[in-house]
Design brief:
Elements lengths: L1 H4 L6 H10 L5 H6 L20 H13 L5 H30 L3 E3 L8 H14 L4 E3 L10 H13 L20
Parallel strand pairs: 1-2
């Protein structure tokens, strides 16, 4: 959605990530655009939920308020947006790792394709406890949620829990993976 707001091509995630990686911090830019520091949504909430709708809204207002967006500003916005998400995900993951005394962390889904998230999360986990395993699929297997659906289907198949061809399928976005 950030890519769309900035007029960048689809799919936006790889483009935002690439531009973020090209950003060179500039203190003068922060003085010119103080709103460039975006919020880290729900980072201090006591639960493990996260939502980036407020972050998207903050980015929308930032983009709207900047009179002229050039390549340098676009890279800075991409960097800050990406880093806000990474900071939130790492904070919640490390807190859950501590609370539940986990032995391994798995990064999955489309977001697992983000190189910066992969690197920073792995580093944060290793800094917390070198004994914790960090697992992430090869980048080519992270394009969408297919791996998660495949894993869910695998466990359903083990139980021989198949959909009947005579029963119409109904999508349920809140279905649990049991």
């Amino acid at each position: 959605k950030l890519a769309k707001m900035l007029g960048l091509p689809y799919p936006g995630g790889p483009v935002v990530s690439k531009l973020a990686s090209q950003h060179i911090p500039d203190p003068k830019l922060l003085k010119e655009i103080p709103k460039l520091i975006l919020p880290r949504p729900m980072i201090n909430s006591k639960n493990y939920n996260f939502s980036f709708s407020g972050l998207k809204t903050a980015a929308l207002y930032l983009i709207r308020d900047i009179k002229k967006i050039n390549k340098k500003i676009t890279k800075a916005i991409c960097y800050e947006f990406q880093q806000a998400i990474i900071d939130t995900l790492i904070s919640k993951t490390i807190r859950a790792t501590k609370e539940y005394e986990v032995k391994s962390v798995i990064l999955g889904g489309g977001v697992a394709a983000n190189k910066e998230l992969r690197a920073q999360l792995e580093n944060a986990i290793k800094n917390y406890d070198k004994k914790i395993g960090f697992f992430v699929p090869a980048v080519e297997l992270t394009g969408d949620n297919a791996a998660m659906i495949g894993a869910a289907a695998y466990f359903k198949a083990l139980k021989k829990d198949f959909a009947s061809p005579s029963v119409p399928l109904k999508a349920d976005g809140n279905m649990t993976l049991k």
